[in-house]
Every structure is written in structure tokens, then in C-alpha cells.
Design a protein that fits this description.
about 15% strand, binds ligand KE4, globular, alpha/beta, 15 helices, 7-stranded mixed β-sheet, about 40% helix, Aspartate Aminotransferase, domain 2
């Protein structure tokens, strides 16, 4: 049995100093019970806690660690760049290189603006959509999480959903009156909202593969429908690819599904674990941003050289041969093994996966949207989570998060995970 005494002591101290003892709510284990472990170090597919326990890691710092933890090219790029200055607040060559790489990988992005988080990216993209169209309303989908900007904390996923408060206190109704919400994969609901709000829709913001209520893929044709209705009505289609960008393919979900959004948001992987966000799209839209246009957006550390170096090193590794084929093979191996383990244990599990993103829901019925996800057995998930944790496998500490496989995971790691899961499933 693992002991986590040092983590327990650290958490007790943290609780006196930091709200909930954490700097981001989902880390607090409130959705699964118990207390979080404190990370000492991470390398490759593993993290070690301060008590020396090792875990095969499927959280990957919520997506950025697609190469695995502390990849040598990224660590070296950070060290080399930091020695030249950690921040300038002056344009630097790495920002240009990053913009070139993003544009080369994502053809819908003619121009891109760097920022320091996914929240900043989506918040800015929405402001830009409203400034470009001169219209107020934005449609989002329930269970989708786009960061914690006021107007987007409406029926949001991830940590907001985990705590049963998808709408946050402190956000006046007037701040969200222009935020419309529809169920994901529901064309009729989207059509009805557009019909009820003629000429006022600035855009739709969507996670093309929602990963903040677990994971459920778009039904065939749904994303194409969103592209069509926005084109027909002059609203902008904004793909929030903070999680899926450079994760599902070098060109993200839009490459997988063959679609061209008007704006795209990025984060996580493009920072290689350092604070980076970005948003980009058609030049005629992006040129509405200050200092060229009337839509203001700014950031002290936007395009920070050290963060750019970490992101560039990550993207360069991802551009290497067959990275995504390797991730797909590992994902398929995990999916096949976990499906077999659940079947052998007689435990109903719906396993959703797109590439190296996955989620297992404890339910007999398919999961296509938030309502389906909410019908899953979260108590069973909590037991499964802790059983795996004690077996040295770290899943996201919430049913409403996605899992991530990295290029550092090996087929042997996947087999060990499946064996651990099979043992835990038999106890549920
Ligand atoms: P950040 O502001 O946390 O960098 O990004 C917000 C964001 C925007 N869009 C999507 C699709 C996202 O998944 C996120 C952040 N993801 C969560 C994990 N589900 C971050 C984890 C956390 O809140 O601690």
C-alpha cells in the first residue's frame, strides 16, 4: 500500500495558504475524494510524488506533455534561451518562428497572436469575433470549457462541472446575457437559437472534440453543420483547439475533420509546459486587433522567449516522422485492453477515444453529450481512480476530464496499465 505522508503534510500546509490547497481547482481531488499527491519530479511517461511513489501519468499536465515529461530537447531549449534573458517585452525572433510554425501546421491560420493561457486565447478570440462582426451573441455548448473568462463560465465543463457549479458566482447575469448554450451534437437546438437571434450572432465557439466533460466525439456531420450555419449567417466559427491543437494531428482537429474555422485558439502543447496561449485565423479578421484595428488585446509575457523556445522545441519534435501514428497505435492498444478488461469484469464502461485522448465512463449507454456523461456512475469512477492510483497509474482526478497518452508511453506501459485496470475493475 502506498503511503503519501509527505504529500499529506504539504497539503495541510497548502490549505492554510492557498484556497483549497491548490492553484487550480481540479487538482484538489474533490471529485474523487481523498487528497492530492504532491509531485516531486516527472520524466517521460511517469511522475514521482514527494513520498517517492511512481505513477504512469495519463494527465500529462492536462495535455501539454505530449512528448512526455522533461523531454531533453525542450529542457535544453529552455536552459539555453533563459541564459539569454527570461523576458524582453520587446519583439524577439522566436515569436516570428512560432507564428511561422503555427501557420505552416494550421492552414486556416493566416495570422496569429500569442498570449499566456488558453483562457486568454478564447477570451480574446470572442472579443475579436464581436468586434469584427459588430454583433453581441456567442453560442457555446454545455460541458465545453473554454477557460474561466466571465462570459464563458456558463454551463462550462472541466473543474466548473466537477464541482456541480457550471456557472460561477461573481459573474453578473449581464456578463452572460449574450452567451447562448446548446447541447453538443444537437443540430436542431443550434438552428433554433440562430432562428431566435437573427442578425445578432457573432460566433460559435466549440471544442471540436470536447475534452472537458470526459471525451465525446462530434457525430458525423455536426462540425460541418456548424461551419455551414455560421457561413450562412455571417457568424464566425471559432475552434477552441487549446486541447486538440497539435494533439490530434499537427493541424489539430480541423485537420482530422477537414474543416476551416474562421478563428482557432491554442494553448498547452504550443508552450511545451510553459504558459502559452494563441489565437489565429483569417488575416482580414486578425487585422482588427490592436495596434492595427479597434479590438484591444495585450499581454506582458505574450511571446515570451523562454516559453516560445519550449513550444518550438515541442512542435519540432512533433513534426518528426510518424509521431501521430505512434500515438494512435498506443491509443488503440489502450482502448482494446481496457474494453476487454471491463468486459471480463462485467463492468459497463463506455470508452471514448480520439487519437491519444480518451475517457472511460461507467455507464451502459453511449456518451455523445453532457447529459449522457452526467448519467455515468461517478462513485464507481472514484473507486476506479483510487484503485489505479494505488497501483501506480494516475488518471485525471475527475470523470469529467480526458486522459492523454504521450510519445514517452511504451507498449509495456500500456500493458501494465491494462493489467492494473483489470485488477481494479474486478473489485468494483
Ligand atoms: P487555460 O487557461 O487553463 O490555459 O486553458 C483553458 C482551456 C481552454 N480551452 C480548453 C479546450 C481547455 O481544455 C482549457 C483548459 N483545460 C483544463 C483541463 N480540462 C485545464 C486544467 C485546469 O483547469 O487546471
Amino acid at each position: 500500500m502506498m503511503t503519501r505522508e509527505k504529500s499529506r503534510q504539504l497539503f495541510a500546509a497548502a490549505l492554510q495558504l492557498i484556497p483549497g490547497g491548490v492553484n487550480s481547482p481540479v487538482r484538489a481531488f474533490r471529485a474523487v475524494g481523498g487528497e492530492p499527491f504532491f509531485a516531486e519530479r516527472a520524466a517521460g511517461a511517469r511522475v514521482w510524488d514527494v513520498d517517492g511513489n511512481a505513477y504512469i501519468d495519463y494527465v500529462g499536465t492536462w495535455g501539454p506533455a505530449i512528448l512526455g515529461h522533461a523531454p531533453a530537447p525542450v529542457v535544453e531549449a529552455i536552459q539555453r534561451t533563459a541564459a539569454l534573458g527570461t523576458s524582453f517585452g520587446i519583439p524577439n525572433p522566436l515569436e516570428v518562428r512560432m507564428a511561422e510554425l503555427i501557420r505552416a501546421a494550421v492552414p486556416s491560420v493566416q495570422k496569429v497572436r500569442m498570449c499566456s493561457s488558453g483562457t486568454e486565447a478564447t477570451m480574446s478570440a470572442i472579443r475579436l469575433a464581436r468586434g469584427f462582426t459588430g454583433r453581441p451573441k456567442i453560442l457555446k455548448f454545455d460541458g465545453c470549457y473554454h477557460g474561466h473568462a466571465d462570459s464563458l463560465l456558463v454551463r462550462a465543463g472541466s473543474g466548473a462541472l466537477t464541482f456541480g457549479q457550471p456557472d460561477s458566482a461573481g459573474v453578473p447575469a449581464s456578463f452572460t446575457e449574450h452567451t447562448l448554450v446548446a447541447p453538443f451534437n444537437d443540430e436542431a437546438a443550434v438552428r433554433a437559437l440562430f432562428a431566435a437571434n437573427p442578425g445578432t450572432m457573432a460566433g460559435i465557439i466549440v471544442e471540436p472534440v470536447p475534452g472537458n466533460a470526459g471525451l465525446y466525439p462530434p457525430r458525423p456531420g455536426f462540425l460541418e453543420f456548424l461551419r455551414e450555419i455560421t457561413r450562412e449567417t455571417g457568424a464566425l466559427l471559432i475552434f477552441d483547439e487549446v486541447m486538440t491543437g497539435f494533439r490530434l494531428a499537427l493541424g489539430g482537429a480541423q485537420q482530422i475533420y477537414g474543416l476551416t474555422p474562421d478563428l482557432s485558439c491554442f494553448g498547452k502543447i504550443i508552450g511545451g509546459g510553459l504558459p502559452v496561449g494563441a489565437f489565429g485565423g483569417r488575416a482580414e479578421i486578425m487585422d482588427h486587433l490592436a495596434p492595427l484595428g479597434p479590438v484591444y488585446q495585450a499581454g506582458t509575457l505574450s511571446g515570451n522567449p523562454v516559453a516560445m523556445a519550449a513550444g518550438l522545441a515541442t512542435l519540432q519534435e512533433l513534426a518528426a516522422a510518424n509521431a501521430y501514428a505512434r500515438l494512435e497505435a498506443l491509443g488503440a492498444q489502450l482502448e482494446a485492453g481496457l474494453r476487454d478488461a471491463a468486459r471480463s469484469a462485467g463492468v459497463p464502461v463506455q470508452f471514448n477515444r480520439v487519437g491519444s485522448m480518451f475517457c472511460g465512463y461507467f455507464t451502459s449507454d453511449p456518451v455523445h453529450n453532457l447529459a449522457d456523461a452526467l448519467r455515468s456512475d461517478r462513485q464507481r469512477f472514484a473507486k476506479y481512480f483510487h484503485g489505479l492510483l494505488d497501483a501506480g497509474v494516475y488518471l485525471a482526478p475527475s470523470q469529467f476530464e480526458a486522459g492523454f497518452i504521450s510519445l514517452a508511453h511504451t507498449p509495456a506501459d500500456i500493458d501494465a496499465t491494462i493489467a492494473a485496470a483489470a485488477g481494479v475493475l474486478r473489485t468494483l
